[in-house]
Amino acid sequence: METNNPFQTNPASADNGKSASIVSYFWFIGWLIAYFAMYKDNKTDLARYQLRQTLLFHLVTTVISWGLGIFIGLALFSTGGTAIYYLLRIIQVVFFVFWIIGLIGAFNGEKKPIPFIGERAQTMFPSI
């Protein structure tokens, strides 16, 4: 017999995808944990939105950081100039600010897009 106990809640439904949203911001390991351990059992709109956004964010930051790192390494090796090194640091600070903006949105349970990335991610990964 089922009773209507107001103090019993289903932890998966009480979360509304907020935990998966937050965990997905912590690099690819966090994204994988959020997707496979949290999202697969509790598919919510908030988690879906944040998972798409963070997947593209992680891909873009990794490719740009590694690509510029290799380019800067070659430039420093061949010319000895350090001005381009500061370009990489400025880009990394911008990515960090974008990450903070997205993480705050996830903590607040909002579908707040990361600048330049958030809206594009929603169309790039429709299967998530």
Task: Name the descriptors.
6 helices, 128 residues, mainly alpha, 71% helix
Compose a concise summary of this entry.
This protein has 128 residues and is mostly helical. The chain has helices spanning 11-15, 18-23, 27-39, 45-79, 83-107, 118-124. The chain starts with 10 loop residues before the first helix and ends with a helix.
Query: H/E series, N to C?
Result: HHHHHH
What is the tally of beta strands?
0
C-alpha termini separation: 37 Å
Mean pLDDT: 84
Number of H- or I-type helical stretches: 6
Class from secondary-structure proportions: mainly alpha
Radius of gyration: 19 Å
Strand content: under 5%
**Low-pLDDT runs:** none
Shape: elongated
Main sheet specs: none
Residues in helix, % = over 70%
Can you walk through the features of this model?
The protein has 128 residues and is mostly helical. The protein contains six helices and no strands. It is elongated.
Topology (SSEs and partners):
Elements (H helix, E strand, L loop, with lengths): L10 H5 L2 H6 L3 H13 L5 H35 L3 H25 L10 H7 L4
Helix pairs in contact: 3-4, 4-5, 4-6
